[in-house]
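Thread amino acids onto this structure.
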């Protein structure tokens, strides 16, 4: 039987894509190189418009069209399932167009919805936590995709006030200290803004907080007292492995 291939839409953002690849290998049961899963990533950052810019009205071209072209390339390589490590790309006005494009081109590939996979992850491991805090960029906040998906599962999504949302957005996008500009290690200014928002959401009663921007997953490495941090990239990773070979998915022990 031919081994299935995991496809990754890279460059959205670039570092988050690399983190997803790392997680695939660390979450796979394997004792040798040859036992690891097949993975293909295509990264064409310059071709895919910024997802947040499109949602907040700064960009006119829907990023979905170029993302579909990348998925087409992955399908041609032989990918059977594809993950897009960008939360904002899962806003309905983008993700629905991606699915339409895949179907119109008859690409025989399954594109996972990362936000829906996060809901499954929370349902499986943290279902007692009905109040969920959300860290995200302005595009994801404005799209209310988390409120829609998690609301359907009976969860309440708590977001910070608008001024704090802008701080989180800047922690990702600021050209001087934002994660997209500095990469790793993440700047102290960005970390401080993220920490302040985590503390705010914790004080609002959220014991479970989602990093609803894949770059934020790079900054949130430490444990915070009284808080469970859900890494959206990690949840997507486990879903991708489950799709191609569930027997190779490592056991997860929730904190």
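Threaded sequence (255 positions):
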């Amino acid at each position: 039987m031919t081994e299935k291939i995991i496809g990754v839409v890279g460059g959205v953002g670039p570092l988050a894509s690399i983190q997803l690849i790392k997680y695939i290998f660390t979450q796979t049961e394997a004792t040798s190189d040859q036992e690891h899963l097949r993975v293909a990533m295509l990264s064409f950052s310059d071709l895919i418009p910024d997802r947040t810019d499109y949602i907040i009205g700064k960009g006119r071209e829907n990023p979905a069209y170029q993302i579909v072209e990348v998925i087409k390339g992955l399908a041609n390589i032989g990918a059977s399932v594809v993950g897009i490590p960008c939360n904002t790309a899962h806003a309905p006005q983008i993700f629905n167009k991606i699915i339409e494009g895949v179907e119109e081109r008859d690409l025989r590939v399954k594109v996972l919805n990362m936000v829906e996979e996060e809901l499954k992850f929370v349902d499986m491991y943290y279902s007692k936590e009905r109040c969920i805090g959300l860290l995200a960029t302005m595009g994801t906040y404005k799209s209310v995709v988390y409120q829609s998906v998690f609301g359907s599962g009976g969860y309440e999504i708590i977001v910070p006030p608008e001024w704090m949302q802008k701080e989180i957005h800047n922690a990702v996008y600021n050209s001087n200290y934002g994660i997209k500009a500095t990469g790793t290690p993440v700047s102290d200014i960005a970390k401080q803004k993220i920490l302040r928002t985590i503390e705010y959401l914790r004080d609002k009663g959220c014991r479970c907080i989602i990093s609803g921007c894949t770059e934020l997953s790079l900054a949130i490495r430490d444990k915070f007292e009284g808080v469970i941090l859900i890494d959206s990239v990690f949840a997507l990773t486990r879903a991708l492995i489950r799709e191609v070979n569930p027997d190779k998915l490592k056991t997860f022990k929730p904190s």
